[in-house]
C-alpha cells in the first residue's frame, strides 16, 4: 500500500550565488543535524528523487509561476517518481521560496509547522531529493523526502525470513483450526512443501496470482512433478499478508479456503512462501498444498 502526502510549506532559504550542488549538500547537512538531535538516522541524498525535485522546481519557476499548485500535482509527481526508478512506500513534498536564512527555515518548521517538521524527522524517512531554481527573483527549493519501499517491506516481513519457522507456524495454525472443528490434524510433507514453494516463487518471479500457471499447470501437475502421488489434492493461495496470523485469518474468512483447511479428505500439508521484488514493487506470495497419497 502506498500513502501519498503533499505539504506546501512557506519557509526560507538564502544561499543565493552558491552552486546548486553545494546548496543541496548544505541543506542535507543541516537537516541531518536536526535528525541527529532527534535520534533519527541521517537522510541520504537520492539522485532519482533529486531528478524529480529539480524537474518540479523548474515547472514551478517557469510554467506555474506560483506555489499554488494544480490539483493533479500529486499524481504527476507520483508518476515522475516511478519513472525515475524510485519505489516509494510514502513520499512528501515541501516547497520553499524566500530570502531568509537557513536557521530561519528550521525555526519556522519547528515553531509554525510542527507536523511537517515531524515528518522530516521521521526515522522511517531515509531518502531526500532536492531541486533548486528561482521564483520571482527569490531562491526556490523543492524537498522530496521518502520512505523507500524496500526498507518498509523488510520491516513488515521481518518475521517471515525463516521459512522453516513459517511452515511450522502455518501447520500449527491449521491444526488448531482443525482441532476446534473436530477434524484430525494434518502432517507436514516435504514433497508438498516443494510443490507449494515452487508455485509461490513462480508467482513472485513472473508477477501473477492464480492457481494456474501461465502454461496451464495446476496443483495436480505441480504435486506430481514434486513426486507426490496423490489420491486427493487441493490448494490455497494468498497474496500480500505479512504474518501467519494475517494469512490464516484471510483464508478462514473465505468459504472455499476454509473448506480446504478443515477438509477430512486431506491428510498432509505443504507450505510455500516467497517474498521480495515483483512487477516493479514488492510482494508476498503464500501457498498451501493439501493432499492425501494413494
Number of strands: 9
Tell me the strand percentage band.
15-25%
Taking the sheet with the most strands, its summary is: 5 strands, mixed
- Show unreliable segments: 1-19
Strand order of the largest sheet: 1-3-5-4-2
Radius of gyration: 26 Å
Structural class: alpha/beta
Kindly, what is the distance between the CA atoms of the first and last residues, rounded to a whole number of angstroms?
43 Å
H/E order of the elements?
A: EHEHHEHHEEHHEHHEHHEE
- Helix content estimate: 40-55%
Taken from the alpha-carbon principal axes, the silhouette is elongated
- Mean pLDDT, to the nearest integer, reads 89
Q: Output the number of helix runs.
A: 11
Can you put this structure into words, describing what you see?
The protein has 294 residues and is an alpha/beta fold. 46% of the residues lie in helices and 24% in strands. The protein contains 11 helices and 9 strands. It has helices spanning 20-38, 47-64, 73-83, 102-112, 114-121, 149-156, 163-180, 190-206, 219-225, 244-252, 255-262, and strands at 3-4, 44-45, 88-97, 127-135, 138-148, 187-188, 230-239, 268-278, 281-293. A 5-stranded mixed beta sheet has the order 1-3-5-4-2, with helices on both faces. A hairpin with a 2-residue loop joins β4 (127-135) and β5. It starts with a strand and ends with a strand. The model is unreliable at 1-19 (pLDDT under 50).
